[in-house]
Amino acid sequence: MPKSLNIVSANCGKVTPGNVEEYVRAGGYESLKKALSMQPRAIVDEVVASGLRGRGGAAFSTGSKWAHLLEVRENPKYIVCNADEGEPGTFKDKLLLEKDPLCVIEGMTIAGRVFDSHDGYIYIRGEYRSIQHSFQKAIDNAVAAGYLGNNILGSGFNFHLHIMTGAGAYVCGENSALLNSIEGKVGRPRIKPPHLAEVGLFQMPTLVNNVETFACIAPILRMGGEAFHAIGTAESGGTKLVCLSGHSARRGVYEVPFGVSLRDIIFDPELGGGIAGGKELKFFHLGGLSGSIGCPAQLDTPYSYECLVRTGLSVGSGAVVVADESVCVVDYLKGVLEFFLHESCGKCIPCQKGIRQMYTIICKLSEGKATQEDMCLLKELACMVTNVSFCGLGQTSARALMSAWKHFEPEFAAHLNKQCPAGVCKL
Ligand SMILES: Cc1cc2nc3c(=O)[nH]c(=O)nc-3n(C[C@H](O)[C@H](O)[C@H](O)COP(=O)(O)O)c2cc1C
Ligand code: SF4
Question: Which one of 21, 32, 132, 244 is separated from 101 by 20 to 30 angstroms, measured CA to CA?
Answer without folding.
Answer: 244
